[in-house]
Amino acid sequence: MKRILTAATAVIALAVGIGSANAADKLKACWMYVGPHNDGGYSEGHDVGRQMVEKQLGDKVETSYVESIAEGPDAERALERLARSGCEIIFSTSFGFMDPTIKVAAKFPKVKFEHATGFKSSENVGTYNARFYEGRYIAGQIAAKQSKAGVAGYIVSFPIPEVVMGINSFMLGAQSINPDFKLKIVWVNSWFDPAKEADAAKALFDQGADIITQHTDSPAPLQIAQERGLHGFGQAHNMYKFAPKAQYTAIVDTWGPYYVKRVQAALDGTWKAEQIWDGLKDGIMEMADYTNLPDDVVASAKDTQAKIEAGTLHPFKGPIFKQDGTEVIGEGKTLDDGTLLSMNWYVKGIDDKLPQ
Amino acid sequence: MTTLMLEGILLTIITAATPLLFASIGELVTERSGVLNLGVEGMMAMGAVVGFAVAHSTGNIALGVVGAIVAGMAMAALFGVVTLIFVANQVASGLALTLFGLGLSGLIGDAFVGVPGAGLARVSIPGLSDLPVVGLLFRLDPLTYLAVAITIAVSWFLFRMRGGLILRAVGDSHVSAHALGYSVIRVRFMAVLFGGACAGLAGAYLSLVYTPQWTQAMTAGRGWIALALVVFATWLPGRVVIGALLFGGVSILQLHAQALGVGVPSQFLSALPYLTTIVVLVIISRNRALVRANTPAALGQSFVPDR
């Protein structure tokens, strides 16, 4: 059913969204989203970035987007339509758009493609991503300092490397403060299902966690935290207004500056396909204001953030051990990007069994 | 396991079951009249968005609930006109209603994305709510009480009242009911409207009680689960309650099992609510004669009165 739904939306979106292109001399930049442009989460983050491009380069650039495109064959059709309709640079913003992007890009060598969070590239396909794990490490440290029970709950979507990397980074951050810190993990098998996320939060709190964090998109878990007088972290967006008494901070996606830079490069003729994995220091993401925290915890969080930005602290610096105790990397060395991007194991101290 | 934790779990289960109960009991009445409305998900989404929008704009949650009911009924009326008066195919029209509802709700709700809602407070019934263990049953939100009341009323109406008999007759054999002088179209239209009102309530429960916020597609497939529950419950209100509680219960308990770290793959645990509900309802529906007696024989068939 969902396929039919998304296919139908895709058709409508294409018919409505692309029809309006006419301005001939402007560069046409296009975006493709996996969810609605106003989902209040991941896709909206990209759309805010698009609006920034529109605002800053609006006299030279025309932007458009297609939304709610299913990952898979629909994505290929939608991309092809975008390329045919005269888009000169196309940002495909979801992990599952990876293969369709590579395929369509081969047919349109003159069009520039950028794919978010993937690992395949070509002559005219660049990739970009943010090092969200940097923020997770800071969140882990805050959790370990603030939790009275020494237990945090973690609501997660699917066992892909990006998610596993986040869990490990959070745990490593927490362990750097409290080596006995415990993490309870619940998989809800969805990126976005507010009610289910709320249920997961309740279950975790009922079982003794007093801090919650998530790799799903809705603010529902934070609302539950607020209701219970407990705390948590926002995801992808600053969720402060949903839970002004509960949010410690949030890892906020800020794709805007990156998009402006890349579209500008396309305008200047200096664009080439690159693999970009930026972090806190590059402004592709940021930490929301630290709130509901004592001053010393805020100070140490800011200190950690500064060290990460300066490159003197890396969350995945050795020694790091897997759950069974085998050493992944020794003292003084840091995991390389390839290992991070294919991570399918938990660090020592996590009780959960990773779904395969 | 402490009493407090047990109470927490029970409360969560009831919360998870309530929207399913609303939507299923409404669809049950619709189907008992012989109409298959697959648009539950769309009507729910409309109820959720209108409920949230009205509650947020007026600051009055009760008005929001009324708005959700009206929105659900408006969608149902559209379906009724198309399928009952213009005799369009019910399955296709129902699917279209879902698509339409999900899309339109997104459009209406554009301004309300990312706006925190107020949420409906729980109501304690004095005296009863202080009882040990069962006391928590008297400390729920008003909409849950309403869901229970509606279910009892529907059961009473269907099997104890003349109107219910007529409705079931229309659903079993519209030709005979017509021959006896009952207005098949009118009865069905009212049943469809009731289904819409209940789906609207289910949506309101999601956007005003469960998670006080609006986002597109927040119903996340619950309308489809409600539809399935009606079939597995063999069109009996009591079994719909069992099905909703069972589905809600297992989906909550599997989250607890995960948090406890039992070594079962989470994908399997996530599938458990569906599996358990199907298995249990199939087992209690072993009696073929009973199933046949309760299945609306004219379900999904259009009726054109001969002039």
TrEMBL record, chain A:
Q: Where is the signal peptide?
A: 1-23
InterPro entries in alphabetical order: ABC-Purine-Binding, PnrA-like
- Which UniProt keyword terms apply here? Signal
Q: Name all ABC transporter substrate-binding protein PnrA-like domain ranges.
A: 28-307
Q: Which CDD domains does the record match to this protein?
A: PBP1_BMP-like
List the Pfam families hit by this protein, alphabetically: Bmp
Write down what this protein is called: BMP family ABC transporter substrate-binding protein
The record lists the lineage as:
Bacteria, Pseudomonadati, Pseudomonadota, Alphaproteobacteria, Hyphomicrobiales
